[in-house]
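Encode chain A's predicted structure.
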Amino acid sequence: MRSISQRELRNNSAEIMRGLARGESYRVTNRGVPVGVLRAEGRSELDDLMLRPGSQVMQFPRGVRRAQSTGDALDELRRDR
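Encoded structure for chain A:
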């Protein structure tokens, strides 16, 4: 989440509105002190966390290859029991 000053919000409101339309979020500060958060309508803080770059990187279990179908991967994992 990008921090912006009250002055930046006032002076660059059109650019910030376009950012909101793209789904960006902003923390607004007044003299360096956070006073509020602007985020796209319908988005929550959890949405922001889930959409953060790298948060959706899938870690495959040992021995599972990316090219496998889900069913094949599950069958292979069950055989290891």
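The mean pLDDT is 80.
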